[in-house]
Amino acid sequence: MNTLWKANPGPQEKVLSIDDSVYEILYGGSRGGGKSDAGVVWMLKGTVDPSFTGLVIRRNHTDLRQWLDRARQLYKNAKFTGKPTVIEFPNGSKVYTGHLKDQDAFSQFQGWSVQRLLLEEAGQIPREEDYLKLISSVRSTNTIKPQIFLTANPGGPGHQWLLRRFKIGDRKPNVAFKDTISGRYRIYCPATIFDNPKLMEADPQYVEYLKSLPSPLKEAWLEGRWDIFAGQYFKEFDPAYHVMEVEDAKKLGYGNDNNNRYIGIDWGYAAPHAAIFMEVTHKNRVFVFDEIYGKELHPMELGEKINKKCQGISIDMSLGDPSMWTRNPMSWRAEHASMYSDATIAHSMKGNSDQPLVPNLVPANNDRVNGWRNMAQLMKVTDEPPNFIIIKGCAPNLLRTIPEQICDEKKPEDLDTTLEDHAVDACRYGLAHLDVPGEPKERKSKDQIKYESLLHPEPESFNYDWRD
After folding, report:
1. For residue 417, what is the domain's CATH number?
2. What is the pLDDT of residue 108?
């Protein structure tokens, strides 16, 4: 009997032997590791139940066609029909296919019920929130337990959330761990091109091509390393240098009364809003010391939260997203709605003009490219401490999202706007308007002043006494 397909010994064999007690499987690493074949065969394992429903998702239609070509070679008895393609097996089990052509596509499968979800090139999904929408359809009422199989290479918009979700580098690979919130198990299984002898034999020059790539692409695509992030925008950022305890920051000028203080504000309602609080010293060193981050607050509610944070703090200027000054651009602008207002977001956020909630609120400079380069320049690490420092524990969402930002494919000088960029946008607004204060004068005690007056007495005053 002819063998149609056989797993490569090593990672491919291991990943296909994982039992159904594991809910999420990430099979990732270098290019050419045999990930696509593993996904095709993994999906086939569920078709033993006539009531089985599977779903295969790829980022675009072209990639999906390539997957289908391979599936036709291995699913010999299946029938491929329709657009998008539905694969039906002789016993009645089905596998549906789809691609993520736009942002709305992430929620199109939410009403479905599928037992197995194969997500190819998961690193192309920009946000974990989008991934969670997709997997909400994975559930079972038959003999096949629900399971998700992801393939991914390091890099791409989804690099950071995959790194976090599967604890790559923190947990031992090939060993499942239990998620503390859901109680379900996840596992990361790495593979490289060297684990795929079929490709090595068929195309040995491909390995040489990968070896010839510049860093960090070579480390990501050849070695499958997740600690190197190809395409990362803020390559200078490193928490070891840019996050600091309060006491250490004070030695560099943080907290001085002479420092200027600013707030950068990025507005959002359905999308997150962000307010980043920062201060700058006379040496142009910026300290981020607080943040507000959340969703679904009306402008005045956000203004009230900012106002509470400002108690006891002198804010020189608040810089808002210029679109906040657009007249009533919000989704609730319908006049019949109870919250209707013809005021702009900025004016609603400020509240009473005599006692504004947000101090000195003005539109920010929205030059994105120069703003990002200014931010990156402040992060530059030399022999001296960097000029951009986050106080430890004070801005978790800014700290989380800075490393996630990648270059836009079409405009590499800008950030990819599909990512979670609200906190970094707010930070950019504030940084674009910093005014460096003058050097603080040394404060003298009363005894010092008295002592200096004895050493350097003022000349006796005199007056003109005109006498004949």
Report:
1. 3.30.420.280
2. 74
